Amino acid sequence: MIGITKAAGVLQLAPDHGTGDPLYLHGFNWEVILIVIIKVLVAFVALLVATALMIWFERKVISDMQSRIGPNRAGPWGLLQTLADGTKLVFKEDLLPDRADSFVFKLAPYLSVIPAVLIFAVVPVGGVITLGSHTFELQVADPPMGILLVLAMSGIAVYGVMLAGWSSGSKYPLLGSVRASAQVISYEAALGMSVVTVVLVSHSLSTRAIVAAQSNGFWNWNLIRLGFLPFIFFMIAITAELTRPPFDLTEAEQELVGGFHTEYSSIRFGLFFLAEFMNTITMSAVVVTLFFGGPNGPIPHAVPGATIFLPIIYFLLKTVAFCFIYVWFRAALPRLRYDQLMDLGWKRLIPMTLAWLLLVASIITWRWGGLIMVPVVLVAAVLLTRANKLGSGRSQADSLIPLVGTRVTSAPRLGPFNPPRGGGS
Fold first, then answer.
1. In this structure, are residues 275 and 160 in contact, taking their beta carbons and an 8 Å threshold?
2. Containing H/E element for 288?
3. 265: closest CA among 327, 173, 159?
């Protein structure tokens, strides 16, 4: 079950091709159940620890970029600062607004955390190993439609935000949650089409099979095979899905007081905070899985146990690199306006993603004959650009609604010092 191929003088990890976890080939028994429980617990604890480190990492890197000190009191280099903040949140008073829907208000934070955990369950973090008589994947679950689960969970996560704003009984959180819904809907289409391009070249929906299709060298990574652009589209779309800067319009403090979680306190606020950083880690892992070969990498000949620990190291290094990119975005880029956010999603990102998907599908189907789609895409791009230009060039005087509004508002205002003609006081 362990696929190792020789390339360029080194051994290259090649996981199984999406046939499912070999742990279940011989049925269930208490040993299989124990291994599954251990994998679930290890993945959950590792994700929690990684989230705590991610919070510290982000604060420390941003402070260095802004010539500040950052966390440096709790523990060496401030490593225990996240633990101290979390402990403080646990012991703070848990408030419930008078007008809040109690059940939904308490449920919403968990709806934000659970999808992040479930997404990480289908991400392969290593190869295939054997302990005793059992061979299994370093992955909690390997369903045949794993990438569909990722897309479903990324869409479900917004329900936690939406219900949090609605159940608070306050206008400002509701406004933030409505923004979140519109934002996710806008970028979900581009995200899905970027993933479809990966599925087309990998011929599978299994995350393990997608990793296997990128083995035998970095030139087989989907980043290169798909021409870089789907990766760029995916990064933009997933950053907006995560509501990370510069797309964090759902909690733009200067506009919405604090966003959808304004009315939350104590550990319930901490869960939203936890979900944001946990999603950052899981989606960084998904990017590595889809475009950068996952745990694939060169395995030297003579290193004992290299086929077990080196893939994990490769996966961690790639994931940390993308976590740093997210921190870099936060420190370097200004927040977009909401109209800019919508324009980028609907007028630019979705058309470009659709055009590239058509090109990839055509080339896979007709080989070089698929290049006939290039002039079709170019003509469609010109027509769409022309339509957008005409739409944005219209003045308010050319539309009906501003004219009606002008007539209505130009009428004399009635008040105690301007009574209507014919009487009144």
1. yes
2. helix 266-291
3. 173
